Amino acid sequence: xxxxxxxxxxxxxxxxxxxxxxxxxxxxxxxxxxxxxxxxxxxxxxxxxxxxxxxxxxxxxxxxxxxxxxxxxxxxxxxxxxxxxxxxxxxxxxxxxxxxxxxxxxxxxxxxxxxxxxxxxxxxxxxxxxxxxxxxxxxxxxxxxxxxxxxxxxxxxxxxxxxxxxxxxxxxxxxxxxxxxxxxxxxxxxxxxxxxxxxxxxxxxxxxxxx
Length: 211
Hints:
With 211 residues, the protein is α/β, with parallel strands linked by helices.
């Protein structure tokens, strides 16, 4: 997957935003993993889990509330909307997620609210996720079929977000004098949420000596 991101960044000068519902306490572990796997640098948008309070059962409740899907969905929607709202209106976005969480529904809502800003949506098919066609048709209702794709492996993704013949139609950075520069932002949700959740809970348990 990292080679695709690297190709997008080198070909189009993409800005990469890693949007994740993981706790921000796992930032350094996540950054180390991405560096090891040679993912390009980018901004990170994670959630902070408050671990304050003498009552260990209250802390457990905070963790359980933090892990709820609706909280994750609200976080991702808010962050992505904020990124789009603060970016130049000429910039388009490619969003990459997976079927394990609510990424199709989140990205579908974003694409309907910002129809001219979303270039493409890629959803990775993951085992254990709800992967039936009806789910994707509902999630991407009113979105052209050529603007979203479900994939299994990274080699199914294009190594260019724009064909050379489409260069004139690509969004241009108004602050740059190069007429052929493509300014695309790729949004990615974490593909490692479940793994890091286990690591985090294990670390938390050892730190607070829960038995």
